[in-house]
Amino acid sequence: MFEQMKLGAWSAGLREKLSLPLRVELWDGERFDFSSEPARVTIRVPDRSALRYLRSPSLYSLGKAYVEGAIDVKGRAADIISVGNVLAEHLGKGRSRLVDALRRRVPHTRTLDAEAIRYHYDVSNAFYAAWLDPGMVYSCAYFEDGSEDLATAQQKKIDHILRKIDLRPGQRLLDIGCGWGALVLRAAQHFGARCVGITLSENQAALARERVERAGLQGQIEIRLQDYRDVEGRFERITSVGMFEHVGVQHLPAYFSRVNSLLEDDGIVMNHGITTTNVDNSATPYGGGDFIDQYVFPHGELAHLATVVRTMQEGGLEVRDVENLRRHYARTCAAWTDNFEANAERIRTLTDEKRFRIWHVYLAGCAYAFAHDRISLYQIVCGKAGQDPAQIPWSRRYMYS
């Protein structure tokens, strides 16, 4: 009873500051509403021990309580994330500097990186197919005029990248982190390139190879289960889409140096990746980054754009073009969230309840973080530093033809 009295006082105090479409239901049926408007989110607390998650909430503690089954949460994922952010912002403790320090001590060995990639991607191909577009493109789409559906926007993203690197017939293209092969398939079919796609995910590699065979492109595309540090040879074009977030901030100079060593002298490389908006490269506030590190992307790290540009230069690359696609990724993640919820019944048959809950809030959380400028997405076109980029047209017009 004492705990419930404290919760009642806590809810009354919160209502004086905020109006949230939130209801908290206790194990005995008692309810606390935080707005006169109908609740869009309901948190059910099954026993007294679970009340601790509400006293000083963070996105990490609330997310952990939900995915571990300590509390139950009902509502649309977008509403759940919105309410959770308000609670964490007004009642939480902000960013964990200790977690930032520990994250940067991760060695990012070949073995550790492969384990992290397989944890995230080797759920099952059917799981991802249930909420991605038909091409299974798992990265930021490009909404050229804002009216495109997700599948169209993903195709436009791939074409946008291949035009930016001015890909030409017969050129050798290396795609680092090739996913299920959508980019190399497009590069071979419509641009006439000879492609190597590498991934550390066995599931991705298997399906990508199947797709290459179905397209009859075995002579133009090779899919490898390979670490980028083990690639040999030289390539006229290199792309990396949604991969460098796994490298680690402290390892970025070595990563870009390796990319540089694989690039022909007159070659072009495109890095498409998520960045933090914290200039000190720290995790996103209110525990969101901590939740992702534990449950979604083990050992992932986001760098600020300034750090990315600096480490590219340290790796021997010259930045030639930068484009911010933050709002494009907010819309992409929102579309994924809608797809996930629309196919929730099927997705529950493809994985366990814990992983279902992780992804239920993760996708909507990413949409919120991109929409509110906590994280961003940049496409950066580079060439070898000190080289005359004479092969690139004088203006950016060629990217849009």
Automatic annotation (TrEMBL):
Keyword Transmembrane helix applies: no
SMART domains, alphabetized: PKS_MT
S-adenosyl-L-methionine listed as a keyword: yes
Superkingdom, natural source: Bacteria
Residue ranges crossing the lipid bilayer per the database entry: none
Polyketide synthase-like methyltransferase domain boundaries: 134-352
UniProt keyword annotations, A-Z: Lipid metabolism, Methyltransferase, S-adenosyl-L-methionine, Transferase
The family this protein is said to belong to: Belongs to the CFA/CMAS family.
PANTHER family with a match to the protein in the record: CYCLOPROPANE-FATTY-ACYL-PHOSPHOLIPID SYNTHASE (PTHR43667)
Protein known as: Cyclopropane-fatty-acyl-phospholipid synthase family protein
Lineage: Bacteria, Pseudomonadati, Pseudomonadota, Betaproteobacteria, Burkholderiales
